Amino acid sequence: MERNFDEGARILSQLEAVEGRFEELSIRITLPEVIQDTQLFAKLMREHSELSELNEVARRCRGIAEEIGQATALLKDPDMAEMAREELEELEPKYREALREARLALLPKDPDDRKNAVLEVRAGAGGDEAGLFGAELLRMYQHYADRQGWKWELIEDGSTELGGIKESVALIQGKNVFEKLKFESGVHRVQRVPVTESSGRIHTSTATVAVLPEAEDVELEVSPADLRIDTYRASGAGGQHVNRTDSAVRITHIPTGLVVTSQDQRSQIQNREKAMRVLKSRLYDMERERQAGEYSDRRRLQVGTGDRSERIRTYNFPQGRVTDHRINLTLYKLGDVLEGDLDEIISQLTLAEQSARMEKQQ
User: Per DSSP, which regions of 75-216 are E strands?
Assistant: First the structure.
């Protein structure tokens, strides 16, 4: 009990500081000198927005704590003691839940969570079927982005003549995109009878997904001397979208050997801009992991080799189920998931990560 009391006092002290900072920001963002400084105003508005939800948690915790204090004081009054005990019985579980929510809200945030994301989908093991499955995953994420109200831009279209993909890259813009999609990185496995299979045998194929936070210009500068930029005529599967001008762009980052292409836009300038955004995001992701000292290991965990045995999730068509192997979650609504209904999977993965982080802090 003493430990719980001490922890509650510590959390309330932290929440009090949050409320104070939120009130301070609420005043500062209305000052003319702040509004005129666009960079400072944007920075303070972002912090104010990020603290808004935590401030509500703080107010709720403080309110329940005050009610408990008032009820505890009434225990000394013989006429009010019974009613006070009943009130405390109702308030104490609410307080424990509020403290749990506060602990969760106070966990250090990944600064990349609020960013846009670069989504890369590649065909893995399984030949043409792997490419077709990769295309389905790409559509699944596009449907999910639509449901979230995010903006979807295809940067690199790796479509094949059969309707599959070799490798496709999309930029997804919106609120907290990376926070939602970062759990999708890894190898996805499909089990089904391919359309090309005449005997009706079930095949297993894979596609790999990587989700990177989009780098902001203030975080990363790329020297023009480190780039080789080539242009060529864009072309699509089956001769579609063929341009008469050299509008497609290929950018090679010489120090790392990273290569990014973009041919989705008819304008060479637009393709170059999109390719640079993807290149910067890949370089930012590399630097982020290098600083953490685990880039190569994490990248293998994220993407793997595409081998059938390396998987984070299985999509089983005969049984209509989706299984996420990291949290042992199985849902029998494969069709809905492929239409972009990823909310339950992502929320369960988020909860699992949060629980692990809370246990680590204890």
Answer: 117-123, 151-156, 167-173, 186-192, 203-213
Cα–Cα distance, 139 to 238 (Å, whole number): 20
Residue type, 149: G
Q: Do 196 and 260 fall within a single domain?
A: yes
Structure tokens at 336: 């809905």
Q: Do both 47 and 120 map to the same domain?
A: no
pLDDT higher than 50, residue 299 = no
Q: Which of the listed residues 106, 125, 146 is the one where a domain comes to its end?
A: 106
Angle between helix 81-106 and 343-361 (nearest 10):
100
Look at residue 159 and tell me if it is in a domain.
Answer: yes
Q: Which residues lie across from 165 on neighbouring strands?
A: 159
Which of 137-146, 183-192, 228-237, 343-352 is predicted with the least confidence, judged by mean pLDDT? 228-237
CB 165 within 8 A of CB 131: yes
Question: pLDDT value at position 196?
Answer: 67
Integer Cα distance of 234 and 160 in angstroms: 14
Q: How confident is the model at residue 147 (pLDDT cuts 50, 70, 90)?
A: very high
155 lies in the same domain as 19: no
Look at residues 361, 339, 351 and name the one whose alpha carbon lies nearest to residue 146.
Answer: 339
pLDDT band at 15 (very low <50, low <70, confident <90, very high): confident
Q: For the residues of 201-265, what is the DSSP string, one character each? A: --EEEEEEEEEEEPPPTTT----GGGEEEEEE----GGGTT--SS--EEEEEETTTTEEEEE-SS
User: How deeply is 60 buried, as exposed, middle or buried, from its count of CB atoms within 10 A (0-12, 13-18, 19+)?
Assistant: middle
Please tell me the distance from the alpha carbon of residue 311 to that of residue 326, in angstroms, as a whole number: 9
